[in-house]
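LAB NOTEBOOK - FOLDING QUEUE
OPERATOR: T.R.
BATCH SIZE: 2
PURPOSE: Compare the predicted structure-token outputs for two unrelated chains run back to back under identical settings.
PRIORITY: normal
REVIEWER: second-year student, initials M.K.

ITEM 1
FIELD SEQUENCE / FIELD STRUCTURE:
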Amino acid sequence: MKNTLFLFIILISISGCFNKTEPSKVIATIGPKVYSVDDINERISTLDPQLQEFFVKKENKVRLLEQIVEEEIIYQLAKKERLQRSKDFKEKMEELKRQALINFFIQEKVEELSNISKEEVETYYNSNSNQFDAYETRDLSHILVQTEQEAKNILTRLKKGDTFEALAEKHSIDPSKAQGGKLGWVRSSQLVEAFSEAAFILTKRDPISPIVQTQFGFHIIKFNDSKTMPKQSLDSVFDSIRNELVAEKKRSRFKTIIENGRESFNPVINIENL
């Protein structure tokens, strides 16, 4: 399937190539159409490195050539029957042209105008330094139940020696029950306030919390471990910041284009007729 996809991609870009060429370079002649080894190699050279690597082996080039021949035969048969003059074909071409124009407009007005400079990344990093400071992360587990009485019963069972994991699997209504209540490594900012406050004062000497109520129900939290993550340098987060800023700029530009377009064309929408 992967190889078929590669061949399909290359066929799109290679179809229609025709050059007068030296006989020693001709690799296929189909009716009036001539393909040279230079035609194929030139197209392959424009592909991503992963795709180029696929065509290093001659056997894959041979398979590609076979596909090109089949495509050219179908193309010439279609022209011979003058299908390009049919109403259905012309309508399809108009739809393809319409979609291509939409894509080209987005490329020109959004994609190519949404670059982010090094200075913009640095400004974001410096203005949001708290996001990249060192922080504590904790490995936590919890049991979530619907009533306070259920939570009290579970605390009693824990004091009598029942394991936290077994009680979580049996009584918790949270999906984490499948892992014995384990939430994994989390930051304080990722948790609702009441849960966070209770979880981040637990210690290895006193790892089980009292009952904690949140909008989700009643929790009993278990502290498993903690570690401090170091401050992230600008270099280490540069790409992720840039990618997020680019995405945000694209969203903003696209939104502005649509808003201006609505003002210009004043679309009328009749949802009741859907």
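ITEM 2
FIELD SEQUENCE / FIELD STRUCTURE:
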Amino acid sequence: MTQSERSLIAGGTFGQIQVERAIAEFRSGRPVVLAGTSSAVLAVPFEALDETSAPHMQVMSEGRARLLLAAPRLRRLGVERSEAGAIALPLIDLKRIAALSVETDARIDAPVSSISAADAAALELARLALVLPAVITCPLPQGMATDELMRVSEAAIGDYRMMETQGLKIISRAPVPLEGAPDTEFVIFRGGEGLRDQVAVIIGKPDFSDAVTVRLHSACLTGDIFGSLKCDCGDQLRHTARFMSENGGGILLYLDQEGRGNGISNKIRAYKLQAQGFDTFDADEALGFDHDHRGFHYAALMLKQLGVHTLRVMTNNPIKIAALENAGLIVAADQRIQGRLTDHNVRYLASKRDRAGHYLDVAERPAPVQGGAKDQG
């Protein structure tokens, strides 16, 4: 490696760079080679397969391809499993693969086998790339030229989230006056979740020697920006900023975790299922996702870098409280924050209360016939 090449990768480990490039390839629908200690597999996201690429995959796989599905999706198909599994694909049959991957009324049609370490890395890569956790893999054909394909080690994928968190740093900051909170500063961090930036909004002049009021707010495009009635996210965001401005200041962490960490495209897929009668968690499970893929450990690191050690947290989510405490912060108090209750969000809020243990006072009432009443914001 030349000195110039060494300089280019000085900002991160070679493994991190491999994974970042592999994420971009997966999101673009291109295959990636996942290398283990003794073997390598070719992996392509289910979303990328079409009438053009399927015949090529059939030739390369030589009848040895497998469809990898996460445990929640397998349970939806009728297989009680706590771990991901693989289904043999002797033929790259697009209709069958689509049915097994996303159709809500599909049932398992073949034995489910255990996955390898490389397979597990392929599913983790799909989650990092925010595509559906349904991946086709096959042993790397002998003699296949792979110079044009991205190659990444399974170990690098496994270490990636931890490495990104360790590299969390402030990139920029500036005053940004807000309506109702004119004395506000935005501080931008890079790292935490893949290639995305995270935002700390410092409102007013919080006293860092005392307990600082803090909210961890996961981004919700539909609610925060467009005012969706299917969730309470926008109300929570604006109410938090107003409360902090009027009560000694605070810090609002705006985290790029759309759809409980599944990404906007999968969130909208879940919305479609919710409109058909699924609740927010069942919709995620039907797509292969667990109830919540978010991590909050890096939020604690953001607070520490800003000088916060003791806080009053504004949240209804006990997982956030536990994550902050487990990261070494002192949670002196926790405060509830609830938005408007509407016919469109009441069952969603009730689902969060009943299935995820959120501290919500929701008197459920019937939802409208049209449009559903659940959300994933």
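REVIEWER COMMENT (ITEM 2): The mean pLDDT is 88.
FOLLOW-UP: none requested
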